[in-house]
Automatic annotation (TrEMBL):
GO cellular component labels: catalytic complex; mitochondrial inner membrane; transmembrane transporter complex
Organism from which the protein derives: Chlorella variabilis
Transmembrane segments: 45-65, 86-110
InterPro entries linked to this entry: CcO_II, CcO_II-like_C, CcO_II_C, Copper_CuA, Cupredoxin, Cyt_c_oxidase_su2, Cyt_c_oxidase_su2_TM_dom, Cyt_c_oxidase_su2_TM_sf
Assigned protein family: Belongs to the cytochrome c oxidase subunit 2 family.
Record keywords: Copper, Electron transport, Membrane, Metal-binding, Mitochondrion, Mitochondrion inner membrane, Respiratory chain, Signal, Translocase, Transmembrane, Transmembrane helix, Transport
CDD domains tied to this protein: CcO_II_C
Summary of the function given for this chain in its UniProt record: Component of the cytochrome c oxidase, the last enzyme in the mitochondrial electron transport chain which drives oxidative phosphorylation. The respiratory chain contains 3 multisubunit complexes succinate dehydrogenase (complex II, CII), ubiquinol-cytochrome c oxidoreductase (cytochrome b-c1 complex, complex III, CIII) and cytochrome c oxidase (complex IV, CIV), that cooperate to transfer electrons derived from NADH and succinate to molecular oxygen, creating an electrochemical gradient over the inner membrane that drives transmembrane transport and the ATP synthase.
Cellular location(s): Mitochondrion inner membrane; Mitochondrion membrane
Taxon lineage: Eukaryota, Viridiplantae, Chlorophyta, core chlorophytes, Trebouxiophyceae
CC cofactor note: Binds a copper A center.
Cofactor(s) required, per the database record: Cu cation
Signal peptide extent: 1-19
Domain of life per record: Eukaryota
Protein name: Cytochrome c oxidase subunit 2
Length: 258
């Protein structure tokens, strides 16, 4: 019993973080190939950035030291140097190409909707999200649709995340190609979940589309990411990725409610 309890207490320490932490500096753990790609590209670029910072700081320090007016009272008259000018033009362009290749590959993959098995519509409202699952309906008025409101502070239960938990989560199957269609009913909103690498504007009168492929089961937290009014900070997003069997039973339960 004691062992069981200590495992239970230690569990959150080892579990993956799919919500922000206090004073967090890095990324949340990725749950989609897209977020992994974003993190990899970030690391690629930081690699070049550190090389450049070290080189430039070294040059500045050397220049300030060697060409100080006390150390070097009579300046050189050189104003051109063809070789070095060619070098300092070509080298940065090569670095830019090295950054551009993986960057474009990632950029185009963000929009690639791979034959989705499930389509979900997310609609931003002032100030909550609503979700529609129309794949399973026999007629127009039969689709699964529900609102997703933030849980207010007073109603929070122990372990729930303040300003992040909602009453009705968006439930999706893990390891399945999903298509998310995003729009808004009133003003601009933005549907964003960091660990999924998803951020898409919700625009009234327009449908935006993003692909999702969640690689593991879990609960993923996000927030509206476009200033949309007084309660912009209070319309969080919760995605619950479950196994296919659990998803099917969730859908059939929802269909019975209609
Ligand atoms: Cu909705 Cu910000």
């Amino acid at each position: 019993m004691n062992l069981f309890l200590s495992i239970l207490i230690l569990l959150p320490i080892f579990s993956l973080a799919d919500a922000p932490e206090a004073w967090q500096l890095g990324f949340q753990d990725p749950a989609t190939p897209i977020m992994q790609g974003i993190i990899d590209l970030h690391h690629d670029i930081v690699f070049f950035m550190i090389l450049i910072i070290v080189f430039v700081l070294w040059m500045i320090t050397r220049t300030l030291y060697h060409f100080h007016y006390k150390k070097n009272p009579i300046p050189e008259k050189i104003i051109h140097g063809t070789t070095i000018e060619i070098a300092w033009t070509i080298m940065p362009s090569l670095i830019l190409v090295l950054i551009a290749v993986p960057s474009f590959a990632l950029l185009y993959s963000l929009d690639e909707v791979v034959d989705p098995a499930v389509t979900i519509k997310a609609i931003g409202h002032q100030w909550y999200w609503s979700y529609e699952y129309s794949d399973y309906s026999q007629s127009d008025d039969q689709s699964i649709a529900f609102d997703s409101y933030m849980i207010p502070d007073d109603d929070l239960e122990l372990g729930q995340l303040r300003l992040l938990e909602v009453d009705n989560r968006m439930v999706v199957p893990a390891n399945t190609h999903l298509r998310l269609i995003i729009t808004a009913a009133d003003v601009l909103h933005s549907w964003a979940v960091p660990s999924l690498g998803a951020k898409c504007d919700a625009v009234p009168g327009r449908l935006n589309q993003i692909p999702l492929f969640i690689k593991r089961e879990g609960v993923f937290y996000g927030q509206c990411s476009e200033l949309c009014g007084a309660n912009h900070a209070f319309m969080p997003i919760v995605v619950e990725a479950v196994s296919l069997e659990d998803y099917i039973s969730w859908v059939s339960n929802k269909l019975e409610e209609i």
